[in-house]
Design goal:
6 strands, about 190 residues, 3-stranded mixed beta sheet, 3-stranded antiparallel beta sheet
Amino acid sequence: MKKKKSDTPEPQGAPDDIVEEAAPQLTPEEAMVAERNDLLDRLQRVSAEFMNFQKRTQREREDQAAFAKGDILKAMLPVLDDMERALSAAGENHGEDDPFYRGIEMVHTHMMDVLRRFGCSPMETVGESFNPDRHAAMMQQPSEDHAPDTVIHEAQRGYELNGRTLRPAGVVVSVAPADSEDAPSEDIEEQD
């Protein structure tokens, strides 16, 4: 519904009738100084914004360069996992003096050196508190020897790239053992 315009006149002193006070008149010299100060202030702000832009752009370029190789390195990690499994099997089946074992060990060592040269390194996780940024919990295991939420076994090695998690470690996390006193009883009688 539209409101009908009333025929009553608006009260005196409505906003349309307000007379603005005139700004004080500045001398030409004062006006030039004020304009100069305003322009100088604007110049300083633009200069600071440009410097911040340059720093941010430089930081983004450095981050991009540091982590651009991450996808390639991450794709190589399953190959490294297979190499470590082969190294373990060769040690069990052939012994550490066997040329086959030493060959696989040399390739593994060289691969680890290449990863380190690019800023990628394995994470040490056993004994740490569980951290979802660094660990992927594969299972929980009751343990009296470890505090709850402590990594007690590493099922898959995790890697960092320049201090950031490239691949989280697959870990087994400790939980408090179930006490017979704390556990709910299965022999609960029904009450009528």
